[in-house]
Amino acid sequence: xxxxxxxxxxxxxxxxxxxxxxxxxxxxxxxxxxxxxxxxxxxxxxxxxxxxxxxxxxxxxxxxxxxxxxxxxxxxxxxxxxxxxxxxxxxxxxxxxxxxxxxxxxxxxxxxxxxxxxxxxxxxxxxxxxxxxxxxxxxxxxxxxxxxxxxxxxxxxxxxxxxxxxxxxxxxxxxxxxxxxxxxxxxxxxxxxxxxxxxxxxxxxxxxxxxxxxxxxxxxxxxxxxxxxxxxxxxxxxxxxxxxxxxxxxxxxxxxxxxxxxxxxxxxxxxxxxxxxxxxxxxxxxxxxxxxxxxxxxxxxxxxxxxxxxxxxxxxxxxxxxxxxxxxxxxxxxxxxxxxxxxxxxxxxxxxxxxxxxxxxxxxxxxxxxxxxxxxxxxxxxxxxxxxxxxxxxxxx
Length: 397
Ligand SMILES: Cc1cc2nc3c(=O)[nH]c(=O)nc-3n(C[C@H](O)[C@H](O)[C@H](O)COP(=O)(O)OP(=O)(O)OC[C@H]3O[C@@H](n4cnc5c(N)ncnc54)[C@H](O)[C@@H]3O)c2cc1C
Hints:
Blueprint: H1 3-21, H2 29-38, H3 60-69, H4 81-94, H5 97-109, E1 114-117, E2 133-136, E3 141-147, E4 158-164, E5 175-181, E6 187-192, E7 201-211, E8 216-217, H6 223-239, H7 249-259, H8 266-294, H9 301-324, H10 349-356, H11 366-377
Parallel strand pairs: 1-4
Antiparallel strand pairs: 2-3, 3-7, 4-5, 5-8, 6-7
Helix pairs in contact: 1-3, 2-5, 4-5, 4-6, 6-9, 7-9, 8-9, 9-10, 9-11
The protein binds flavin-adenine dinucleotide (FAD).
């Protein structure tokens, strides 16, 4: 038996044991999820004692399949996308043992939802320009500033936060990374509405928010390095999902094409075929990316995947509108909603078209991702940078 076969056999045994001890039909959902975490079957690639078994990441799919077949509840990863996709791998990489023990279990079960307090007015693509200050008063870090575009802040218990702790240092070196309790006094969350009418995100005002030093992630001044780990994971989380063939937007458009022959036109046929092939290439590239991930940290390839995802999403939603003609323009629901998750399927084509606009902005704009691919994958000369060794406080704003 090969090593992988043995690992699969062992995992099967562990799943059977969990199911025998916690019958999904009779066990409370959260109790089951907590037991699953404690059995190391939450994310098998995480270390033992932290919801995993230190196994290759690909083996998780086997566990998920067995549990789904047995009718076990899952933790619906879409409800805590920022927690699972970004906060968790960053806490695992930079957290102290106490932080990992405190935060990873309720994050994985979904008992604690996370948001990402990175972007600011004036610091989006140029994240290292951020101006939110965190000052040590001898007892606490006292945080003041404004964040923007904070998805899910209204339902989050915790936020990953980058703040400036040393204005005298050049911009990339004077930041520190924190875990911010969103229920603390001084955290004010206000909805921001999008082109779809929904408010998935918010502006967040931080006024004298007191963060204890135990909630600093990584060393003082190491914020940029920690934030980079989050951003690389973010791109994989957005663009590198494990989807079946014709999953996502291509599936929606192909389905309309099959069901509605009266809408077909030769020019649209050629475009659909091209996009179908591109979607399949993107899907298989995502598979390869996840295999590489199993062997280490995500690299710049995650940026390429996110870039492709955004381009395809916009081209396909545009094609769908053209295919449907007037029917596609019918979206007219502008009532303010606070959706729990972003779903493209099961909604109007007009909604998909409008929401897809944000895909090339969220998680890093396509222009920035092209720069990363140019510099770090293709090795092209970098853009000139004039602010590298200048103290942040002396930069023009
Ligand atoms: C749906 C959605 C959800 C979001 N959720 C979150 C969240 O939860 N938390 C969070 O912190 N942020 C979030 N964001 C913010 C997002 O990360 C930022 O909007 C993004 O990083 C771009 O920053 P900006 O909006 O300030 O644009 P700017 O940085 O002002 O950029 C404006 C334009 O200039 C281009 N540009 C800038 N610099 C360069 C350059 N050097 N070379 C070439 N072109 C350049 C950009 O690509 C862009 O087209 C979200 C955004 C969206 C749309």
